Structure to design on (841 residues):
């Protein structure tokens, strides 16, 4: 058995109290040496007197041996408390028999009384108890008289050693029977000394002489601590209730300070987008809701559908961490969106609700349409009980399998929004007559929804060119519809690709100047042999065109770039190319500025041509010059004028007229021409293709499923290998999200900066290489100073610029600075350029 389960007992001889006895408390021996010895003597156990006080600390004496006066109000003993209540052995448990005990007491009583005299003590018989003497001294209760009739004290001690009960020594206590004085008066004269001796032996305090306190006996005893137990329990209950009340008051105050879910979400809406705020609110509300009782708002459905569209596997993983709708719920929601060919009336109803709060300038939009290649496949849809995959322009299906998907989209001019309107399936290409009907039907539905289409944008497909030829001319690129002009514009990125393809196939002549693509190739061949290049983005891929590279707008824009024009001018200056190549350089420079003017995305760009069209900008004069140049371009070896040349003329006139119309009728202060291309539709096609996985050509059924996703969500991001740049647009039902990132700071230690050193002579391989080094040094210094800032300290970082004159080693910078004034290209000092060239070569 473990020591913790051993019962603790009272150390007083013949006391059977233990720690589990009801109404009894065990008190540990005190630390005080004298009191500890007094307690040990009271126990009448010889073995305890030999133990040290440290060993006696493990012993106890019960509360039956202490007076009530030695207790404090708290129920604890006073610091000077001593046990004074002696114990009397229970005759029923210690004596051999009740008869022997009674006989011994009777004999003792007979010796006290005189022969023939009755007992003088009334109440309980004396046989119920007797005096028990201490073990440390002999207590003589009876003295022998002159006649020798009195018994010895040992006879009484022997009888008392087997008794039980208690003799309470208390000066002011009443007896259970008659007093000692009364008993003594009834005894014969020879016993008066015995009574006096008995009275004198009442004080049983250890180490003290016997006092003359009256002696009493009680058959039952109630501990003083038991009298305080109810009060202590009530006090403990009161403390418990007070602590509980205090705890509940604190919880109530905390709950009052805590915000509800609605208040918390309202405080977060200031820092989060509406979609993220709705998602956080759903996570808080659905935390303790069963999956069968969850209800989702439209924003949460859109987020879940977009996430599932990106990656079904990733969506299943996110459902383990977040509260998201099940996949089956997503499928049921998508099933509610109808899969039908044509324009969606639900979309136009949505546009009408949103456009009701639009100002006039935000109602201006463009109509974009284009075709996407799909694979031929015939499938059966059991829900509408019809076959799918056939050409279809209206309710009736054609006999041929479809391999083209024609999509119509509306896009804002002043605000970046876009909205798919509908799709159709065509065999090879939609005829011009069908396009005419669909175009003006779409225009009518948009006007009925509250928008005002002001332009139509498409590429130079054969059917599109045929449609434009029936409606407008390059000299008059607009048509009046219901009293409002409708401008027809060809997509500028497609025009740029076509112009690059024609230049690589034929030579151009403008007046007496000949433009050849061979000069561009020669410049690339000479530049790629150098370690530091002036046109590092050009590669063999730009000249060895494949079907995919011919469709890349990025490759065409890099060929018609200002760096390529500057490299051509530099090579002509150092006679690395014939002087006739300067006309090609000027043409490349003009096309670069023209594409910047037709593709502006910022109000203030890197150059005036890359900035938005506004009143007093360089665009109007420049576009007029470009129109005159393109009208005089002669393509050598081509039987007729290429469509891209006429398309550029029509597009430039349409942009100028459209800007004047928007500024006068809609109050626009500037125009971003990137909103006038069809990048938004091209990006939509890229997303549809990504839904098909490794299969680049989607079937009609796959196209319908992806298009249905586009109608309900807008959480899509193009891959880095996409053909088009981001269109800066979102669905009409959502708002664009703009993220900003602060420029990192550069901390410099308080160390000495390197000083300018003497320029050592260095033999460059060619002046072209020296020009490239100076250009690279200036570009590196500009990027460093633009992206980093120095911490204020004992030294300041600066780049000494030399803008006054351009030497022979700065011809590249000269041509670039003339082409792009204010772009930030500077001519650094000679020491810095030498240092850059030394560590790079």
């Amino acid at each position: 058995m473990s020591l913790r389960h051993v019962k603790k007992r009272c150390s007083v001889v013949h006391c059977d109290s233990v720690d589990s006895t009801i109404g009894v408390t065990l008190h540990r021996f005190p630390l005080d040496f004298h009191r500890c010895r007094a307690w040990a003597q009271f126990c009448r156990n010889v073995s305890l007197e030999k133990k040290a006080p440290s060993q006696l600390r493990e012993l106890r004496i019960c509360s039956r041996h202490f007076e009530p006066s030695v207790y404090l109000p708290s129920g604890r003993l006073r610091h000077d408390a001593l046990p004074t209540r002696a114990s009397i052995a229970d005759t029923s448990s210690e004596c051999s028999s009740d008869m022997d005990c009674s006989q011994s007491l009777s004999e003792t009583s007979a010796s006290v009384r005189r022969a023939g005299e009755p007992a003088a003590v009334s109440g309980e018989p004396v046989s119920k108890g007797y005096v028990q003497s201490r073990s440390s001294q002999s207590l003589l209760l009876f003295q022998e008289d002159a006649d020798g009739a009195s018994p010895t004290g040992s006879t009484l001690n022997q009888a008392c050693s087997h008794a039980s009960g208690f003799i309470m020594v208390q000066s002011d206590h009443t007896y259970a029977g008659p007093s000692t004085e009364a008993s003594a008066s009834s005894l014969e004269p020879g016993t008066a000394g015995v009574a006096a001796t008995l009275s004198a032996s009442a004080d049983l305090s250890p180490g003290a002489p016997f006092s003359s306190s009256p002696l009493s006996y009680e058959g039952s005893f109630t501990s003083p601590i038991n009298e305080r137990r109810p009060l202590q329990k009530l006090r403990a209950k009161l403390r418990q209730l007070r602590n509980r009340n205090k705890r509940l008051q604190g919880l109530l105050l905390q709950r009052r300070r805590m915000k509800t879910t609605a208040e918390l979400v309202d405080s977060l809406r200031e820092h989060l987008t509406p979609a993220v705020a709705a998602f956080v609110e759903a996570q808080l509300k659905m935390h303790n809701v069963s999956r069968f009782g969850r209800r989702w708002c439209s924003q949460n459905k859109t987020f879940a559908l977009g996430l599932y569209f990106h990656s079904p596997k990733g969506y299943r993983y996110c459902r383990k961490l977040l509260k998201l709708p099940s996949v089956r719920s997503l499928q049921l929601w998508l099933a509610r969106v109808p899969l039908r060919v044509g324009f969606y009336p639900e979309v136009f109803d949505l546009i009408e609700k949103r456009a009701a709060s639009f100002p006039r300038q935000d109602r201006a939009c463009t109509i974009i349409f284009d075709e996407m290649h799909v694979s031929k496949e015939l499938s059966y849809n059991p829900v509408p009980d019809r076959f799918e995959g056939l050409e279809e322009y209206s309710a009736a299906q054609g006999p041929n399998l479809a391999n083209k998907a024609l999509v119509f989209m509306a896009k804002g001019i002043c605000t970046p929004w876009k909205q798919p309107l509908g799709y159709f399936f065509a065999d090879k290409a939609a005829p011009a007559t069908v396009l005419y009907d669909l175009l003006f039907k779409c225009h009518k539905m948009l006007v009925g929804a509250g928008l005002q289409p002001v332009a139509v944008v498409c590429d130079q497909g054969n059917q599109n060119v045929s449609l434009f030829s029936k409606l407008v001319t390059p000299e008059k690129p607009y048509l009046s519809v219901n009293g409002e002009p409708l401008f027809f514009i060809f997509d500028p990125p497609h025009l740029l690709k076509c112009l690059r393809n024609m230049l690589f196939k034929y030579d151009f002549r403008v007046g007496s100047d000949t433009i050849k693509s061979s000069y561009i190739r020669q410049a690339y061949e000479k530049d790629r042999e150098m370690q530091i290049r002036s046109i590092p983005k050009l590669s063999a891929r730009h000249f060895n065109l494949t079907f995919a590279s011919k469709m890349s707008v990025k490759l065409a824009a890099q060929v018609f770039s200002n760096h390529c024009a500057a490299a051509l001018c530099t090579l002509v200056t150092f006679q690395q190319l014939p002087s006739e190549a300067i006309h090609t350089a000027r043409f490349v420079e003009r096309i670069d500025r023209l594409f910047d003017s037709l593709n502006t995305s910022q109000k203030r760009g890197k150059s005036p041509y890359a900035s938005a069209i506004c009143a007093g900008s360089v665009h109007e004069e420049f576009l007029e010059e470009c129109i005159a140049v393109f009208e005089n371009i002669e393509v050598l070896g081509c039987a007729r004028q290429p469509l891209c040349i006429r398309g550029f003329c029509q597009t430039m006139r349409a942009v100028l007229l459209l800007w004047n119309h928007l500024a006068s009728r809609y109050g626009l202060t500037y125009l971003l021409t990137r909103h006038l291309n069809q990048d938004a539709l091209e990006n939509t096609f890229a997303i549809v293709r990504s839904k098909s996985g490794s299969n680049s050509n989607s079937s009609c059924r796959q196209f319908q499923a992806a298009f249905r996703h586009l109608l309900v969500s807008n959480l899509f991001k193009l891959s880095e290998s996409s053909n088009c740049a981001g269109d800066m647009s979102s669905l009409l039902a959502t708002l664009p999200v703009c993220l900003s990132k602060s420029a990192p700071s550069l901390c410099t230690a308080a160390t000495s900066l390197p000083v300018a050193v003497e320029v050592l002579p260095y033999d460059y391989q060619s002046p072209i290489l020296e020009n490239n080094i100076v250009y690279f040094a200036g570009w590196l210094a500009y990027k460093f100073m633009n992206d980093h800032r120095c911490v204020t300290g004992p030294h300041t970082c600066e780049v000494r610029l030399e803008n006054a004159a351009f030497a022979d080693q700065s011809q590249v910078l000269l041509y670039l600075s003339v082409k792009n004034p204010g772009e930030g290209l500077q001519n650094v000092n000679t020491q810095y350029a030498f240092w850059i060239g030394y560590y790079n070569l």
